[in-house]
Amino acid sequence: MKKIRQPIIAVLGHVDHGKTTMLDRIRNTRVAEKEAGGITQHIGATEVPIDVVKQLAGPLLSLWKGEIKLPGLLFIDTPGHEAFTSLRARGGSLADLAILIVDVNEGFQPQTLESIEILRKYRTPFIVAANKIDRIKGWKITENEPFLVNIKKQDQRAQQELETKLWELIGKFYEIGFQANRFDRVQDFRKELAIIPISAKYGIGIPELLVLISGLAQKYLEEKLKIEVEGPARGTILEVREEIGFGTTIDVIVYDGTLKKDDMIVVGGKDKAIVTKIRALLKPKPLDEIRDPRYRFDQVEEVSASAGIKIAAPGLEDALAGSPVIAVRGEEELERAKGEILDQIKSVIISTDKVGVIVKADTIGSLEALSKELHEKNIPIRKADVGNISKTDVMEALSVKDEEPFYGVVIGFNVKVNEDAEEVANAKKIPLFIGNIIYKIIEDYEAWVKAEEE
Ligand code: GTP
Ligand code: NA
Ligand code: MG
């Protein structure tokens, strides 16, 4: 039987621009109403049922002619660099849609640009929330008000200031090839990026944000969201974590099918496909804090896409964040799943004897994103792997250096450098380019090449 699953919506943006506060606000609204079971917060994800959206949005929903048939929205919060991990699925995007949050007072910041690059690379449609409008001087706050109601209450000066800040944002988007506009001035949502001014802290503009995201999903993604719900599950690992009483567990977003408690699963590991049997499916209680180590889980029998769930199973120690999870029923499916997962790992974790740079990253998702970027810049890769920079990495760079000095380097995303690796790098003058913003790491490398050439 086909059903429409919840769209998976990633929330991205620069540090402290308000991603979590926005999600908190969406959750709190419901808490305030004390309606049990209204919102379920899964691991790293927040589920908002469609009746909540409808309640919050009120008459605004009529903006969309036609009915919203989605069961709800599944939001993924992406703190900092974890964006890569959580966004990956089959070399594409796990997210069906995204909300890019920009502090309207700070404008574009490095991680804003990085987020846009990821969205562009994976062709993920997104809308922009211009946050913290309440910080504008003299702004009058009415909690949870639609923006279009709230804006009318502001004096001329505050309105003008917001307008100026929005134009600055629109200008920045224009510079990088996007046509953007305030959402109520957008003519065609497929061509223009909609900007919704919000205050995550006070809930202003949240009604429009929810209406827009659900309307866009309904209008443009209905076919993509239709799934065979009874089929075996497919998902992506968000995080690999120790859980007291359960050992190593994986937090997974299931985007297809149904995962059952007794299912056999195949999971991506560092150099192998891990086959294991689920011991428990753990669902956090509604409205629990995502990263609170004390919360207690409910054990459930099954879970259908889209959902966030923690899986406890033996042998997950070597599971890789960002890699696939495929449930299998039968020998043939098992072999196919193993093959598919190995292919995916092999397309990202590579080891050659080419003359090229050494690449290290913290997860398979970030490694894939970094490698893609290098590839597009025609920078050849000798080795790409997950983990900290080791002495072996530096020695390999050294052997490359003899043949081609510009490629005798190690490029690392969100990784540490082992002590002995650091020593060798210093002694042999092997440059290490490390950071947590891809385009900056590559810029640094390119600047170094240029300086060396001169
Ligand atoms: P990271 O997860 O660390 O990347 O940050 P984030 O994007 O999740 O931001 P977070 O929600 O943690 O907010 C950062 C700070 O900004 C907090 O102190 C919030 O209270 C504040 N903040 C967020 N939204 C608003 C807003 O709309 N208005 C005001 N005045 N403050 C806000
Ligand atoms: Na923060
Ligand atoms: Mg946050």
UniProtKB/TrEMBL annotation:
It comes from the Archaea. GTP binds at residues 13-20, 77-81, 131-134. Residues 4-221 form the Tr-type G domain. One of its GO terms (cellular component) is cytoplasm. Coiled coil: none annotated. Keywords: GTP-binding, Initiation factor, Nucleotide-binding, Protein biosynthesis. GO terms for molecular function: GTP binding; GTPase activity; translation initiation factor activity. Belongs to the TRAFAC class translation factor GTPase superfamily. Classic translation factor GTPase family. IF-2 subfamily. Function in general translation initiation by promoting the binding of the formylmethionine-tRNA to ribosomes. Seems to function along with eIF-2. This is Probable translation initiation factor IF-2. It comes from Thermococcus argininiproducens. The gene is infB.
